[in-house]
Amino acid sequence: MEKYIVLIIFIASYIGFIFIPSHHALCACVGALLLVLLGAMGPWDALAAINWNVMGIFVGTLVLAELFILSKVPAYLAELLVNRSGNVCVAMLFVCGLTSFLSIFAANVATVLIVAPVALAIADRLGVCPTLFIISLAMCSNLQGTATLIGDPPSMILAGDTGMTFNDFFFYQGKPSIFFAVELGALASLGVLYLLFRGYKQPVEVMEVEKVRSWVPTWMLVLLIVSLAVASFFNSESKYLAGAICMVFGVVGLLWYETSFGGNMREFITVLDWSTTFFLMGVFVLVGSLNTVGWIHDIAVIMEDVSGDNLFRAFFLIVFLSVILSAFIDNIPYILAMLPVAQQLGQDIHGSQTLLVFGLLIGSCLGGNITPIGASANIVGLGFLKKRNIHVSFMEFVKIGLPFTIAAVVPSAIFLWIVWK
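^ that's the sequence the OP posted. Answer follows.
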């Protein structure tokens, strides 16, 4: 009975994620609370199911990313790039490139909020519809967030589950890692963006460059990356090292904001993305309960029956399934639920677990670019357009998102197969 109680609560929570996404954190936390109240999971077991290293990485980088935005450095860089472009096509490729770069260090939604006004300004000066520009920015932010440990929650979840360090995203077990797979996909998708933008040959008017308020958050981000990279060389027994480093930088950033920047720490803390924070915690508990009662093993057995002992079939199944499902559901609960499945499947068929979990990450993170509801950054981007009474239909988005996704996923998956099979 307990096994079916857990499944019912998980499915009900997932339905909430899909149909009331604005309250996804509430759905996750209520589901986790029900598991405890109904005795399917003990309070201490629920707390133990939460990966506190991932939470530390997420909250610490969240603080620095918000300070980075307030410093005006991203807006300054965007406008500087636009002013050095020969025409609109080049300008938008530069802006998309900057969006990709920023998404390696900041949340996708935050990146879109930073750069979208620049794209809108370009469209306004040309008198053209900004739909293509905004959708392209959102897709680029989703793509590059996967490349490093601190880019996106799914990458943090993967690192927390497998013990990967910051440097492991570049080279893992002596082989090129997920970063290079993502960059290969990014290069291929850049060709799609060029085809989309090539008709915009108009010269760009010079934009007024944003004045930088402080370079301190930028240097904090640089120091954080260096610290994580250096920490990767030490075989620390602490599984919370990366999270602790990020939290220390977050606290230092808050103190700097209060004492030197002249801001109000309490107000700053209230505007942070606590919704995603509690969503992550709730989903950790929900997925932990699935694993505890044996559902993860059962799902892995079903996938093993479909793929047999064929590693290529298993890899293709995971990538394809992840791309399709992530086009319609949030990739955070999906990757949390499927990571142990991919690992169990790899173990059962005596194949590479690394290949399967990397395929899971690529498919689940890039699949969100297919539809307008596949990623939060897409929804935020369309929100900018809606404020201008521009309504983008589901199929209009798919016409842009599908070729971009195919161009990014195929070379990334081929790269992973060649390197990790």
